[in-house]
Amino acid sequence: MAAPGGRSEPPQLPEYSCSYMVSRPVYSELAFQQQHERRLQERKTLRESLAKCCSCSRKRAFGVLKTLVPILEWLPKYRVKEWLLSDVISGVSTGLVATLQGMAYALLAAVPVGYGLYSAFFPILTYFIFG
């Protein structure tokens, strides 16, 4: 029994014992060397390496085009019924913010407001295609 204000001992936790069994094959040195021997790779000439690297197939050309213009990657997979409404809403809100921001920056720079409209429209269009 602990005295008031004194320390009491923490309860004892039960001990758990775990055992693991690791099963590995037993090798002789000769068997290990045969299974894990290094295989020598044939060296290719510079011409063969360049021919493989610089060859162009239809699949490879389309892959390069997809990396440059990502819309070609995702547009065929686009689910119109599920995603179009939310994309239109986000596009309109982003466009409004960018338009107002472009007009405000044009006023701050003391240039005609039309320049601010150009600065709002074309970057978003470019991002849509290449982003």
Describe this structure in words.
This protein has one domain (34-130). It is built from six helices and no strands. The chain has helices spanning 29-35, 46-54, 58-68, 71-74, 80-108, 113-130. Helix 5 runs antiparallel to helix 6 (113-130). The mean pLDDT is 82.
List keywords for this structure.
single chain; 131 residues; mainly alpha; 60% helix; transmembrane helix; SLC26A/SulP_dom
Structure, briefly:
It comes from Homo sapiens. This protein has helices spanning 29-35, 46-54, 58-68, 71-74, 80-108, 113-130.
Instruction: Name the helix and strand elements from N-terminus to C-terminus, one letter apiece.
Output: HHHHHH
Name the average pLDDT. 82
Instruction: Report the total helices.
Output: 6
State the secondary-structure class.
mainly alpha
**Overall shape:** flat
Main sheet attributes: strand count, strand direction, barrel closure: none
Strand content: under 5%
- What is the gyration radius calculated from CA atoms? 34 Å
Can you tell me the number of structural domains?
1
The count of DSSP E runs of length 2 or more, i.e. the number of strands, is: 0
Low-confidence stretches: none
Q: Span from first to last CA?
A: 72 Å
**Helix-residue proportion:** 55-70%
Protein name: Solute carrier family 26 member 4
Organism: Homo sapiens (Human)
Domain SLC26A/SulP transporter: 84-131
InterPro entries: SLC26A/SulP_dom, SLC26A/SulP_fam
